[in-house]
Amino acid sequence: MTLTIALAKGRTTTQVLPLLTAAGIDCQALSTKSRRLIFTENPDYHFILVKAADVLTYLNRGTVDIGIVGSDVLEEQGHQQFDMLDLKTGRCRFILASTPDFDPQKTKRKLIATKYPHLAQRYFQNQGEDVEIIKIEGSVELAPLTGMADAIVDITETGTTLRENNLKIFATLTPVSTHLVVNRLALKQKKPAIYQLIQSLQQVRPQEA
Ligand code: PRP
Asked: Is there a single domain that holds both residue 56 and residue 158?
């Protein structure tokens, strides 16, 4: 029985491939720096490489059985599938950041730039604060630097991007890591294979909390 897996391209794939390899899954073909998107040479596991924001689309439509993607995407998009395993890799966190002169206590309605509008909206709603969200596709750090927004809600991993752009963290929201999500129907139809994969990954994922 073949399991079809959508892997979020980029950092997620780079960090997950060693885990898959350690779990005994031959995914050597994915390690090469090529523009290939579909890998079917392993009869047990077929892989497709998709943009992180598209992983749930493939999963929701049943095109793949499993999606491997950051919890940032899962929190932003919401989903009806089974979030089965925290792979404890790809760790980063959501933060509220801005230029050092930003005053979070100011009563003026804030302009917040982010790649995660739903998550940012929820965060401020929970704080009882009404803000205006500006959806940005990337390099969110530019928004407060150019004056387009008062602050950003974004993810940070090493902190390098914030540091090199003289931005300061004003609040830490939630932690983020890579998760394995399973399509509901696939879990019924391919249960043994899926549980075997989960068990193998559980043994090789980073063990710390
Ligand atoms: C993410 C995030 C930050 C950066 C943080 O962007 O939006 O810009 O990584 O990482 P760091 O703390 O290790 O510096 P990404 O690299 O995905 O690029 P993008 O902004 O173009 O989407």
From this structure: no
| Domain, as residue range, for 114 | 91-173
Provide, for the chain, the percentages of residues in helix, strand and coil under a 3-state DSSP scheme, each rounded to the nearest 5. Answer: 35, 30, 35
Per-residue pLDDT of the chain (209 residues; tens, 9 = 90+): 999 999 999 999 999 999 999 999 999 999 888 899 999 999 999 999 999 999 999 999 999 999 999 999 999 999 899 999 999 999 999 999 999 999 999 989 999 999 999 999 999 999 999 999 999 999 999 999 999 999 999 999 999 999 999 999 999 999 999 999 999 999 999 999 999 999 999 999 998 76
Closest atom of ligand 1 to CA, residue 10: 17
The three-point CA angle 49-53-56 to 5° equals 80
- Which structure tokens are listed for 26? 């031959």
Q: How far is the CA of 200 from the centre of ligand 1 (A)?
A: 30
Q: Give CA angle at 53 (52, 56), nearest 5°.
A: 95
CATH number at residue 66: 3.40.190.10
Atom in ligand 1 nearest the alpha carbon of residue 155: 2
Binding-site residues, ligand 1, Cβ < 6 A: 138-141, 154-161
Q: Are residues 78 and 180 in the same domain?
A: yes
**Predicted TM-score (pTM) of this structure:** 0.94
